[in-house]
Amino acid sequence: MAKLPQSIPELVARFGPHLNRTPSGGWTAIGEPDRLVKTHCCFCGQQCGIQLKVKDNRVVGFEPWEEFPFNRGKLCPKGVKRYLQDEHPDRLLSALERTEAGFVPVAYGKAMDRVARELTRVQEQYGRDAVAVLGGASFTNERAYLLGKFARVALRTANIDYNGRLCMVSAAAASKKIFGIDRSANPWSDIPKADVLLLAGSNLAECSPITTDYFWQARENGARIIVLDPRMTPIGRTADLFIPVRPGGDIGVFNGMLHVMIERGWIDRDFIAACTTGWDELERTVHNYPPERGAQIAGVPASMIVRAAEMWGPARTSFLLHARGIEHHSKGVENCMAAINLVAATGRIGREGCGYAMITGQGNGQGGREQGQKCDQLPGARDIENPAHRQYIAGVWGVPEASIPHKGLSAVPIFEAIRDGKIKALLSFCFNPAVSLPDGHFVRAALEQLKFYANVDFFMSETSRYADIVLPAALMEEDEGTTTNVEGRVIHHRKAVDPPGDAREDWKIVCDLAGRLGAGDRFPFQSSREIFDELRLASRGGVADYYGITWERIDREFGVFWPCPSEDHPGTPRLYEGHRFGHADGKAHFQPVDWRPAAEEPDVDFPIVLTTGRVVSQYLSGTQTRRIGGLVDQHPQPRCEMHPRLATELGVADGDFVRVESRRGSVTVRASVVRTIRPDTVFVPYHWPHDRSANNCTAHAIDPVSHIPEYKICAVRVTRVPAPTDALASLEPEAGGVR
Amino acid sequence: MSAERSDGSQLAFFIDYSRCIGCQACVQACEECDTHRGVSMIHLETIRRPDSVQTAPQVCMHCENPICAQVCPADAIKKTPDGVVQSSLKPRCIGCSNCVLACPFGVPKYDAHIDQMMKCDMCYDRTSTGRRPMCATVCPSQALAFTTREEIERTRQGTAVNVWRFGAEVVRTKVYVMMPAQGPAIHIDTIRKGGPAVAGPGREDVASLLDGL
Amino acid sequence: MSRVTEGRNPAVVSGSHVAHALFWGLLASALVIAGIVVGSRGFRDFDPALVSYAGATVFSAFGLGYRYAMWLRRPPTRLYWRRGWEIFLAPRRLPRHLFELGRLFVDSVVAQRFIEHRSRTRWIAHWFIAWGCLLAAAVTFPLSFGWVRFESAADSQAVYRAFVFGVHVFTFPLDSWLAPLVFNVLDIAAVMVLTGLFFAFYRRGRDRGALAVQQFASDMLPLALLFAVSITGLFLTASTHLLRGLQYGFLSQLHAVTVIFTLLYLPFGKFFHIFQRPAQMGVAFYRRAGAEGEQAACIRCGEPFGSRLHVDDLKRVETALGIRYELAGGGHYQDVCPGCRRRTLALAQDTAWRDAGGHNAETRRDG
Lengths: 739, 213, 367
Known about the structure:
The complex is a heterotrimer. Chain A is α/β, with parallel strands linked by helices. Chain A has 4 domains: 8-85, 2-Layer Sandwich (Phosphorylase Kinase, domain 1), CATH 3.30.200.210; 95-167 and 364-579, Rossmann fold, CATH 3.40.50; 169-358, Dimethylsulfoxide Reductase, domain 2; 608-735, Barwin-like endoglucanases. Chain A contains 24 helices and 28 strands. In chain A, the strands form 7 sheets. In chain A, strands 5-4-18-17-16-6-7 form a 7-stranded mixed sheet, sandwiched between helices. The termini of chain B are far apart. Chain B has a single domain (11-191), classed as Alpha-Beta Plaits. The longest helix of chain B is centred in the last third of the chain and has 7 residues, at 149-155. Chain B has helices spanning 25-30, 67-70, 98-102, 124-127, 134-138, 149-155, 207-211, and strands spanning 11-15, 43-46, 55-58, 109-111, 116-118, 144-148, 159-166, 169-179, 186-188. By secondary structure, chain B is an alpha/beta fold. Chain C is elongated and about 95 Å long. Chain C is mainly alpha-helical. Chains in contact: A-B, A-C, B-C. Chains B and C meet through helix 2, helix 3, helix 4, strand 8 and strand 9 of B and helix 3, helix 5, helix 9, helix 13 and helix 14 of C.
């Protein structure tokens, strides 16, 4: 049983989150740093280049890296302040074991012995699949590859998945279905070359700020911008057409646009005939979506849909970008496909200024899903159920094909299986599901069911508190490896400093554990470069082919775009040139999509839509960013945004406390009464824990194809309440309190 | 001008308020600069949050004849030969806040803790050695840009303007603002109670799109 | 750093201002001379060996008087000066102000805590330098003016008598604890100054921020002068006690040169802040008087942003300086708070772009 060993305030007092405000050594400008380490920001899929200042083996600051072509020195506030996590007082410096009296430090070797013993015991008693492994999309490619191999070779469990399941999978599945490859089709340098930009479901300015300059550069070049969002975002504010779509209504806009485009002849019939399949069925489907019907679904005037079609349809060049706003739905894949249909129907793909991209959210959202830590994939974005793919990987790993488990459970079903007692033990890295998974009460109750839970993290996250053993991990700047950015550009994270205390690199922990589980001969790695070399081989011939990419090439060329099948191959910044698509027939496959409602639509009891998202100064579950003073100051606590019309109905004034309550749980936060959100929708950002966790309300409904949870819609009621005064509310805001 | 590129072209500071996304990267990066470590000098203004998400950064404009210096009783505000108006001289500043109230751009900040006025000095430690200021280097939207005039004219619409009129007072600045190609000066001559919320007179603001749903 | 033009037309300013300042400079010199004459009882107590120091002080007094008068002619300074005294001397509040002055003096002058908040190293450096210099000044000026003198008692070479303005104040034996203190007070001052200089040079040599903005003439030269004065002074002591008077004459001339140069530099460089800085205490009273009175509300947002006293005074200063903030649309730009100024700038630019149908055209409600 893994109930919390101490009260939350006691755990917070000991392990934080506390705030670090000043650089190591104070705000002094005395002396020069020993060196500047060129590496990348650990937050978000943009993976901006940054130089870390190192003095006496400590990270003491940063210097912009202006040569790196993606961001040219630009950084968002998270990038600016990320260096403050290194010398943080909350860092875990030794392994911890839970006891009746709370967590006690334990020797690293002893902790590892116990992890190996417990996992073996559970597998012997309940079967191999009774142990689940969870990884993270903030992992380097090397770590992601290693963890997938570890689960299949050392533990031989089918149940490995990762938190990228909460982020990118709808976009990935949609891209694969239509074009056959899961990757943004174009490099970011194509954005400023487009005549029209369509941004669907992305608060770009807060979630991927660096892309803003690409947008404005397009605008300077005369591009027109269309934005779909239920909230007025900074990009939406100055867009040429801001469509304040109802959450979940995007298909109404996309299908309606295509309907108008077909009517007016703004589609590329030659391209459709030569390079695509499935058009007739699509045409039949969108025939049923005249703008008036689309408008009804989308909750916006029909004229907006017509206007969008008029801007998008006849354009010479165009670029679609989509993100979680349309992906976090139980129809997330369908939403993305409806959007991508607009790209394929015009044939504006695979050339300069023409294409589309999914805006990756997590640090290695792209690479993290290619190396085989997904329950349904093997390295190189290979299919775990494809016999040829299995055979190839079995060869690389030196194991019998039959020993590789088949498709396992994805993240949310893993927690359902834990709740149902089918999964008994969990080993997790780089993942804070107690905050980040939907339906928080369900997730925390499941964690309490585990017979054994080992957690690897650099800070004590809200989830680590449920662990039997916590192993201290290294930060990105304490390890070396590669990630793959939003464009599909493979880049190099350099090590700046050594991990402190007993903390060590995840790959060392995994190799060590593999050895204790008797699979050491398959994990002989002495460095992450050796892992990368095996990854290259494992990905060879796959869709995400890294074979031709070396660390030296990455350094020399400011990153290399996959697929890159050989060392003399230049890499592939732009996919689909010459209209050669990723499917076996080389064609794009249109996917007709009909709109359907969300798993939970508002009703009489819960009449308001809650949608969730990010703020610019926080990252994911906040394990890192809720520990950095400047970032917490910027957004100390979540607020519930609501339109004044709704606020008046509810009798709520700006700054009042409100309880946002769904069938599953509630949050109590202050209200922000603003005219920048739809009157039928409220918004609460999700980075905070406990009674401030927006995911207490969300439903764990998932998309049938991608298994992404429906974070963007659930039904709630909102009531004005007095200021909460309980023990959790009295915590500091970064720990889940309110002010 | 000290901030000179290897090809001899001069770097200058350009603001385009309309690009700002309010992310505060500039605010966070400002305090990393060596001339004012731990204290952020830049302003990031939320124009009127209930109605809009519009925000705007304000750095020191580095006037040719700075009003802050003219109204300083202690003669504590000085300009470098390359035209950068510095924070008040520590030995002289008497903390009177004349500059804070008189600056037409609302730039200087009085810090009661150290009893001194401090302000944006264009990251003098950086610009005086050919590096770009912190805020303009990191700014994700490039609402703040530090580059050559040629580069700005090549990549941006409009023109870079550095002449302002506040009532009848004409102010020339070292920092430029991107304006549509029209009149030579930016004229501030009418201030109304409540101010314009977010849009020009007689125009509907973006939020009205949401009001109507 | 270049000077900022004061007022719109400096040529008009200069003539009468210079005459005015010359008067105050001469008056200051005259006062020092009168002080020397009277205090030394008609030169009876004056030590001719120190005449060059006294002479330099007279010149320095002229410079300080001139500079101070020029400074006070600047409209903002003049207004603050006048307003500061008015407020301070208001009879009803004078007792409280005197008490407050004492507190401010201890905090700002004696302890100099506001400098500690800027940087601890800077504070340590400044405190040692400031009090070393003040200690030295408290000894050397009275000595060189002939206000203080020492002589051995008529009946014993082992007893010293101290006179102030010719009046015998106390007697002390040479073997008492007081004697080495009295004779070495300048050495103690020199060590204090050198201690401060060590911290100052350390900071200025290594702090990247200081390195970026400091300039030799305004920041390093004053430190160099103090270093020269202190070290040559210590050489004199060393020569007397350790080296049997080796090169004493040369060293004493060298010391005199450094001191005289520093005295002459006093009105023109960084050291002028010693005389200017007490104005800071006047500001504290001005600010309090402002806070207790009516507040000025911004004509745009309606929020108070400063005292009415301050805003109105500033308008007077601006008028005197020729700054024309009167708005054609009515009102005065000085009545807009700094935040609303910043917002107005952004809105002006945004509106201009929209009017031009430019790159950030207003979202269309309908195509």
